Structure prediction request, 528 residues.
Amino acid sequence: MLSPLILLSAVINGLMTGAVYALVALGLTLIYGVLHIINFAHGALLSAALFAAFLAWQKLGLDPYIAAFALAPLFFALGYALQRFVIGPASHADDRNMLLVTLGLAVLIENGLLYEFHADTRTVELAYGFKSIDLGFTFVAVSRLISFVAVFAVALVLWLIMTLTDTGKAIRAVAREKLGAELSGIEVAHIYAVTFGLGTACVAIAACLLIPNYYANPSAGNAFVLIAFTIVVLGGMGSVPGALIGGLVIGVVESLGGFFFGESLGQVGIFLIFIVVLLVRPRGLFGASA
Amino acid sequence: MVTEALLDVSDLRAGYGDAEVLRGIDLKVDFGEIVAVLGSNGVGKSTLNRTISGILRARTGAIRFDGVAIEREKPAAIVARGLIQVPEGRRIFPNLTVAENLDLGSYRRGTERRAANRDRVFAIFPRLAARRMQRAGTLSGGEQQMLAIGRGLMAEPRLLILDEPSLGLSPLLVEELFALIGRIHGEGVAVLLVEQNVVQSLEIAGRAYILAEGQCVMSGPSADIAANPELKRAYLGL
Prediction:
């Protein structure tokens, strides 16, 4: 007889994992929603951010959760500069070119990391790394609980930026009406870069939340981005609430899949969902109809 | 000394790819004037507007606004000078609320007086006030046109370009629209009215230009143009 408590613990674990997936997907869907491109550099940027979090810990002795407050603005600036001075100018306002430029960037970043750090896997060791909270029927790692809360804090901050600031409103405006935005004095190139910066900052925060339980290596980010793509499709391309809920759903599916079919088959459920969504509801849970 | 016009376009050429759409346009708008630009579909009226606003780069020729050359400036810089265009097709932000659309009207200019200007716009368009929290995409066509003009007014225009504002509006709304243009003009704003609605445009404008095949074939006081049946038949399809 299957105990509901064991199932519940699998669900809770899935929600914790799913929250970080959601954050990676949030960055991806934000960029897609405004620039209408799939950012192929997202995974490589996540790998770079994992290294940054690792180095902050190794060289500066910074706790990853503290480092997040420095790496988020740093990666925002990096993302801004990449879009404004590399991706934008190199693509001459053609979306297809933009896509290829991000793909090229991914190759550059990944190989740059490989050159500098080799293919070794690096981990941080934290005093609280193995601490967990006893819920009575299951244990939840403290670091995963922190990630869960942090992701919702980030989502809240993003939502406030999007609804209360002029820049946030301009981002939403540019997503749907570029010409109207330009005639209102909004610089589309600037807004694109801000959006890319925000997406990249999401990746930096995700890296800081991941590194206590995960590792840095030059292709570490790719695994997450593949899942994040699925989440973006599930939630609806460009939808922020879709990314959040999609991330949690995917986390739970992976956890339950692992529970029933064994760890190695856990991710099969994710891609089954991916295929079913594409067949049944291609615009995703929260996607606008075409 | 001759005082300079607010907007002074001279020998303007622009186009897309191999196609030259504007083939040497000369046009002036004085301070506080309403000027109509008339002509049938495809003569380059919208291209002219896009070039003046900096969306499309002029190939040759000069555009001066209040004495400053702006033909190499970006759209945002041109907006900052108070040259505001309400584009054809409204181009409002459908996913944003009415209030947010107006906020973005003052993104670049008039930002400090946003609240006061919003009240002013709501006083002109009470229907927008009632729908301020509604998504702009759910508004009717007439309301969307009002919102587009309201968004333009939020930037405290010195020159307001209206591109086909009466397109798709019911006759009653068109009446309302032209009354509104008169009211905006009454507040000292110069208006460049680009229209296919010849009769009403000539009634409200002091002067008019007639465009054909990317060139200005006739210009002068509206009354003269209105009184020239041959001209109207040849170029305006009346």
Notes: The two ends of chain B are 41 Å apart (CA to CA). Residues 97 and 211 of chain B are 37 Å apart (CA to CA). The interface with chain A takes residues 53, 55, 74-76, 79-80, 84-87, 90-96, 100, 103-105, 107-109, 111, 151, 155 of chain B (CB under 8 Å).
